[in-house]
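Re: beginner question about structure tokens

> Can someone show what the tokenized structure looks like for a real chain? I only ever see the sequence side.

Sure, here's an example I had lying around. Input first:
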Amino acid sequence: MSVELARALPGRYYTDEAIYRREMDAVFGRTWQYAGHVGEVAEPGDYFVFSVLGESLFCVRDGDGVVRAFYNVCRHRGHELLEGRGNRPRIVCPYHAWTYGLDGQLQRAPNSQSMSGFDVSCVRLQEVKVEVFCGFVFVNLDMQAESMEKWYPGVAEELREFVPDIDDLREAKYFEIDERCNWKVSVENHSECYHCRLNHPTFSTGVVKPETYNIRPQGHCLRHTTECVNLERMTYPVDLQANVHAGDYSTWLLWPGVSFQVYPGNLLNAYVWQPLGVDRVRIVRRWYTVGGESNEVIDRLAQQDLDTTVAEDVRLVESVQRGLNSRGYVPGPLVIDPNEGVNSEHSVEALHGWLLEALGEDRQGMDG
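And the corresponding structure tokens:
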């Protein structure tokens, strides 16, 4: 009796513009997206502008200390309200000086008193759903979306266990890496270590023990766990006595495009995938330290990672994208080990399942 094997997605899921456009709405428009860090809105009136799916948005802390996010567009005639970052006691549109409170409520519209029936209390900025997650600000364009705890159960608690000082962290290092591939190619590569021994020698011999590596779905999260190598073989110093997880490595991929990665020594970084087109994606990489202070360890680790694992992955994913565009590509079976482990692609199968669910499709009848 033959067993039906799980197969990789057909190439069109990575090369077709129509599928890409559907993903932007059905996936990125209805899931939790990284916006920034709560330290950027530490005081009432602090704000920063960011974008999701090409939409200009801004995050602000209101007078009651609540972190909010709004579309960066005036309700009057559409002018953008804010630029960059800063602090404002209220939000004033540069076009006609319509003025909003930090809670988004319209307070004043010049000469509106001349209009019978115009009530400023009935006009508010368009708000988006926001959560502060371990000090990081996330937004969801779907106001009916379930909470991040529902999407990614247990992750907040685990991150706090692995990074005990997470509330005191600020950004210390920032990198942008552009890759010529579909966003899913890059996320899938990040979400399996089947390729690690062959392609990431520094990571596999100087950071982690590949034989202990595993990835397991946790809600819409992929949780990576492993052990670090013997202390004398580490490429940077680690105080294993600092806390219970000082010698551990773990990653939490929050589908579809945010990953928190903790290196041995409780060193935190974050990946954010920003799709730029069907075959283009930008990865924003941030490293965090207490107070955002740079130090020799974080400087060395961040540069080592950029020069080795990141550079190695860019070559891999761009080659995959070229292959997916070939008429010779026919999806082969994924290697699904029932015992999971480093040489299994069960995590990629999970990613495919979440994607198809979001698109309202299933595996039946998919062609190459």
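Each token stands for a local structural state, so reading them left to right follows the chain. The mean pLDDT is 92.
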